[in-house]
Amino acid sequence: MLLVSHTGEPLEAGLDEAGRGCLAGPVFAAAVILPPDFAPRYLNDSKQMTAKRREQVRLEICQEAISWAVAEASPQEIASLNIAQASYLAMHRAAEQLQPRPTHLLVDGNRFRAHAIPHTCIIGGDAVYRSIAAASVLAKTFRDERMRELAQKYPAYGWEQNAGYPTAAHRTAIRNFGPTEHHRMGFRLL
Predict the structure, then answer these.
(1) What's the burial of 11, exposed, middle or buried (CB within 10 Å: 0-12/13-18/19+)?
(2) Which pLDDT score is estimated for 115?
(3) CB burial class (10 A; 0-12, 13-18, 19+) of residue 165?
(4) Is 119 helix (H, G, I), strand (E, B) or coil?
(5) What percent of the chain is modeled with pLDDT above 90?
(6) How far is it, in rounded angstroms, from Cα 71 to Cα 28?
(7) What's residue 114's pLDDT?
(8) At residue 66, what are phi and psi to the nearest 5 degrees?
(9) Measured between alpha carbons, how far is residue 91 from residues 1, 56, 135 in Å?
(10) What are the contacts of 107-113 at 24+ separation with CB within 8 A?
């Protein structure tokens, strides 16, 4: 069972990212402030949920959250900053969109770049706290949606199925067709 809060503050926000290990596409982050009674039946770490359940829970989060936001960092920002710093940038962008402003940030992972809002890092937090799990679902579903859109322009890479992750088929497509402007040129593509 996921925990409601770490600090007990009513405006505590969960933060998580998606797409850090991909070869293509932006890294996405989401920030979510939930009401204390928000407990969808299937809410969990997005990696533990089916795509259908993620979409169902995404709708519930978007309808019932006190506030939510999704942001991204582009492949160009990833190349210039590195993937860790670009992930933090996307998380900062998401947190800064929240209204009302959160009083505390719960961040999935073991590191986070300093922010004006106090924060706590929780390793595996998307399997511990509801707000981080909700952020995990939003980051994953919005990023997957973007990769499906990009797949329509670049069908050879199978992004509608692999979301830009380093599958054998994706690497074969890079070998056969070369990288696109959406590939992360600082990553080992082959």
Answers:
(1) middle
(2) 81
(3) middle
(4) strand
(5) 93
(6) 6
(7) 81
(8) -65, -40
(9) 25, 23, 10
(10) 107/15, 107/16, 107/132, 108/14, 108/15, 108/16, 108/17, 108/132, 108/135, 108/136, 111/84, 112/15, 112/88, 113/85, 113/88
**What is the DSSP-derived secondary structure letter of residue 156?**
G
Please report the pLDDT score of residue 186 as a whole number.
86
Q: What is the mean pLDDT of the segment spanning 62-84?
A: 97
**pTM for the complete prediction?**
0.96
CA distance 114 to 157: 36
Give the pair of three-digit tokens for residue 65. 């959250």
Within 8 A by CB and 6+ apart from 24, the residues are: 75, 147, 150, 157, 159, 164, 170, 179, 180, 182, 183, 184
DSSP letters, 21-65, are: T-SBS-EEEEEEE--TT---TT-S-GGGS-HHHHHHHHHHHHHH-
Confidence of residue 103 (pLDDT cuts 50, 70, 90): very high
CA distances from 131 to 40, 43, 71, 135 (A): 12, 10, 16, 6
Q: Has residue 190 got a pLDDT over 90?
A: no
